[in-house]
Amino acid sequence: MNPRIRPSTPEQIAAANVRELRAGRPPLSAQSRLTEQHRRATVGEPGAFTSDLGVDEFAAIRSVGFSPVGQVLGTAVYTVGWLGSSCGVYRYTPSAPAQVLPALPMQRTLSEARARAVNRMRYECEQLGADGVVGVRFQIRLFFEIGLEFLAIGTAVRADGHGPRPRTPFTSDLGGQDFVKLVRAGWVPVAFVQGVGVTIRHIDLDLTMQGRSWVNTEMTGPTELVQVARATARKDLRAQARQAGATGVVLRTMTSQEFERECVNAVEGFEDRIAEVIMTGTAIVPYERRTPSTTQAPLTMLRLNSQRKATNDGHR
Predict the structure, then answer these.
(1) Are residues 146 and 54 in the same domain?
(2) Are 107 and 198 in contact (CB under 8 A)?
(3) 199: phi then psi, degrees, rounded to nearest 5
(4) Would 249 disulfide with which of 73, 84, 156, 281, CB 3.0-4.6 Å?
(5) What is the pLDDT of residues 249-298, one digit of tens each?
(6) Separation CA 241–CA 41 (nearest Å)
(7) What is the pTM of this model?
(8) Do 62 and 121 fall within a single domain?
(9) Which residues neighbour 69 within 8 Å (Cβ) at sequence distance 6 or greater?
């Protein structure tokens, strides 16, 4: 957007917002908010930053020389229509059961939407002059009845002092205390990463008969479906870590869901079974070599329970 041309009418503002979103930046109102927040923080005005860190997390981050700058978020709303199908390639023969296939359209959509939400969150972090984002929470939720909202939200932090700054702000889903443990162990976060695996398999006669069996037996079709989805998600996670230049990934969550869907352009009553696996974590790199004798103990936070203390004092 040309800074010399300021949109004034609602139509011009709406068009400018679309251009900003397509360029990977938030709408104009969000950019104005970030600029004002950065200005207030620079001059030290009260209430210059917001944070969703707890008290323990806030104190932990300050103990290793980081200060919260502000809450940042990124969002993207997607309509999810075409998931992929196995009916078009499935041909039943008694000796050849249905194959497990990748549902590439759905897999690409989940990866692209996550990347856009995280990049917009990182942009807000950059605009606040921060060095990274901790405590990233990533959510996928229904957006009314028109699609899915992909939301990334966290707290931007800045290292105290005037040392060298990272060229690109890091993102991490580690909370404040876990972030401190990582830093004290000689590692630093690089990027919030997510591995996605979506597979699809036609519900053939063999699978139908297994489901109707009165004998306790493994359903080999669903087992293979989930295994391939998890293997795909792990492969995707490793690829993102390599792209970020990381040494490894601290895995935080793994979700798995399976559902059935009627085949597209097929005879009525034919269905596919779909498995979706999402793994999230923080890609990390070592910043110095440490021996067990030089590694500091993890930071411990203890809560004082006044009721328990009173009980213990009563038994003395």
Answers:
(1) yes
(2) yes
(3) -125, 160
(4) 281
(5) 999 999 998 887 777 655 556 778 889 999 999 999 998 655 444 455 55
(6) 33
(7) 0.74
(8) yes
(9) 41, 49, 125, 128, 129, 130, 155, 156, 157, 158
